[in-house]
């Protein structure tokens, strides 16, 4: 935290490398990573945003011809000079009620299987935290092998 009287300065190439390296490291650790930034909007942006049809603005492609239903305003100008606030890394933890629920299912003759979009290491870790026997195909990773084991 830099405080109220600090000066906002542009990110250097070194800063960008550190941010990218941290994001990659956290992603490999199977954290969900979000970058947070802020861009003050001028009061004239209210008219642009209010005139957007479809309930939202999605800045995926700057080519106006890419979607004829989205007005061709230059929304990309709204995100220039963003102020980087930080990175957020979060992980999934099973709810404490899940383990007794799984045991109740097993007692009733229902085999509980956990399917996860995460890598196999993280899938097994979560399944173990839920009380599943990870050696009996009770936890299955749906992530393709080439995206990381």
Structure description:
- With 149 residues, the chain is an alpha+beta fold.
- It has helices spanning 13-28, 45-50, 98-107, 120-129; strands at 32-38, 83-90, 114-116, 139-141.
- The strands form two sheets. It has a two-stranded antiparallel sheet with strand order 1-2.
- Strand 3, helix 4 (120-129) and strand 4 form a beta-alpha-beta unit.
- The two termini are 36 Å apart.
State the main characteristics.
149 residues; alpha+beta; 4 helices; 4 strands
Give a topology summary.
Layout: H1 13-28, E1 32-38, H2 45-50, E2 83-90, H3 98-107, E3 114-116, H4 120-129, E4 139-141
Parallel strand pairs: 3-4
Antiparallel strand pairs: 1-2
Could you say which overall geometry the principal axes of the C-alpha atoms support?
Answer: elongated
- The portion of residues forming beta strands comes to 5-15%
Strand order of the largest sheet: 1-2
Residue-averaged pLDDT, rounded?
77
Query: What's the N-to-C terminus distance?
Result: 36 Å
């Amino acid at each position: 935290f830099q405080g109220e009287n600090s000066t906002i300065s542009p990110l250097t190439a070194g800063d960008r490398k550190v941010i990218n390296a941290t994001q990659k490291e956290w992603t490999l650790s199977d954290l969900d990573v979000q970058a947070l930034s802020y861009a003050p909007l001028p009061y004239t942006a209210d008219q642009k945003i209010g005139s957007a049809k479809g309930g939202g603005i999605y800045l995926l492609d700057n080519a106006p011809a890419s979607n004829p239903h989205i007005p061709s305003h230059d929304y990309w100008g709204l995100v220039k000079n963003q102020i980087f606030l930080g990175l957020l890394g979060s992980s999934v933890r099973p709810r404490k009620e899940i383990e007794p629920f799984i045991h109740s299912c097993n007692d009733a003759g229902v085999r509980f299987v956990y399917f996860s979009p995460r890598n196999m290491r993280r899938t097994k870790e979560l399944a173990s935290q839920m009380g599943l026997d990870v050696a009996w195909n009770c936890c299955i990773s749906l992530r393709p092998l080439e995206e990381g084991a």
